[in-house]
């Protein structure tokens, strides 16, 4: 990781990552029973899904889905992953290396079918919809049950692509916990699911309990230097902001990632900037160093208090997508604020 003065880098959460040993793939005994309760019917994002038996050949079509499955110790029942925005979580690297990566981005329908899947899961409605890998109906017609993360349909009226669009109500961690429990039930490993939820809750509560940042305002910059994508009120960034007691300067918009002007950001002048260090290189400002170079050289952004004071909080792009990584984002923001004197 590149170093900059007063930057709180992603590595600050290393201790938290190491603390997740109970959910490292392969460390939890297999508690699956003899498939009692199957066939299983589950209502998922408006679709009634039937799972005849616990999957043995699952494909995770987005990073968020893959990391939940890996955290549940399911690498031996996965035949493919796809659509990665960042390196896999450190504690899951060994397990992830055992699972074929079908594509860094969205795979074709044919590539997925070549794995002979008996189950597919995705984090975003856009992955299992028009313009995505395939419609859920296409998988269903072939006898392959599908699952979409409730984080991309709870409180939303339209399917999104990579968590864009507007929310009718704020996202909460309950949607993440529901996804964990649903997948654990589908794979007939409910005990592992409860253990993972307990760990996530514990980490969330520990971060919340040590920060008092009611005087802090934050802006979350994902990408693009010309008209930047900044987080609105109610997605994963909303969970992070609420957890540390701060204010998002764009909490007056329900769009998950509205594009705004730098003049508007200067007018609202956040205390600190949360910067996504993206592995992809498709837009100007994806990488951390390009973000900081732009901020400190542009005549508008150079006037921001956060830039003058180098108040940068670095997260992975995946930390700003609704998933188990949202807790990583909370911890990284909390670490930075604590170092700056906002401990409770």
From TrEMBL:
<feature type="domain" description="Fe/B12 periplasmic-binding">
    <location>
        <begin position="57"/>
        <end position="344"/>
    </location>
</feature>
<dbReference type="InterPro" id="IPR050902">
    <property type="entry name" value="ABC_Transporter_SBP"/>
</dbReference>
<protein>
    <submittedName>
        <fullName>ABC transporter substrate-binding protein</fullName>
    </submittedName>
</protein>
<dbReference type="Pfam" id="PF01497">
    <property type="entry name" value="Peripla_BP_2"/>
</dbReference>
<feature type="signal peptide">
    <location>
        <begin position="1"/>
        <end position="18"/>
    </location>
</feature>
<comment type="similarity">
    <text>Belongs to the bacterial solute-binding protein 8 family.</text>
</comment>
<keyword id="KW-0732">Signal</keyword>
<dbReference type="InterPro" id="IPR002491">
    <property type="entry name" value="ABC_transptr_periplasmic_BD"/>
</dbReference>
């Amino acid at each position: 990781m590149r170093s900059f003065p007063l930057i709180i880098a992603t590595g600050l959460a290393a201790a938290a990552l190491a603390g997740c040993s109970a959910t490292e793939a392969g460390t939890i005994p297999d508690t699956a029973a003899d498939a009692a309760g199957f066939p299983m019917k589950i209502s998922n994002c408006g679709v009634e899904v039937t799972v005849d038996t616990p999957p043995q050949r699952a494909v995770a079509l987005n990073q968020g889905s893959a990391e939940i499955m890996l955290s549940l110790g399911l690498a031996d029942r996965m035949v493919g992953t796809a659509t990665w925005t960042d390196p896999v979580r450190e504690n899951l690297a060994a397990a992830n290396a055992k699972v074929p990566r079908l594509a860094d981005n969205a795979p074709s329908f044919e590539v997925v079918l070549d794995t002979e899947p008996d189950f597919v899961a995705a984090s975003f409605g856009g992955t299992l919809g028009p313009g995505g890998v395939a419609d859920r109906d296409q998988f269903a017609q072939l006898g392959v049950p599908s699952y979409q993360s409730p984080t991309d349909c709870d409180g939303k009226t339209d399917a999104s692509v990579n968590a864009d669009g507007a929310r009718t109500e704020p996202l909460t961690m309950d949607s993440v916990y529901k996804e964990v429990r649903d997948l654990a039930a589908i794979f007939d490993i409910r005990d592992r699911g409860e253990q993972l939820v307990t760990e996530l809750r514990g980490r969330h509560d520990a971060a919340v309990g040590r920060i008092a940042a009611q005087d802090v305002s934050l802006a979350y910059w994902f990408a693009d230097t010309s008209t930047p994508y900044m987080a609105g009120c109610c997605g994963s960034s909303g969970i992070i902001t609420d957890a540390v007691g701060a204010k998002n300067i764009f909490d007056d918009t329900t769009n998950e990632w509205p594009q705004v002007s730098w003049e508007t950001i200067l007018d609202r002048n956040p205390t600190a900037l949360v910067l996504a260090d993206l592995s992809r290189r498709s837009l100007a400002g994806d990488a951390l160093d390009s973000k900081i170079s732009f901020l400190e050289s542009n005549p508008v952004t150079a006037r921001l208090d956060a830039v003058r004071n180098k108040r940068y909080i670095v997260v992975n792009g995946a930390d700003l997508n609704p998933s188990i990584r949202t807790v990583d984002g909370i911890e990284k923001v909390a670490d930075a604020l604590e170092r700056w004197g906002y401990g409770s």
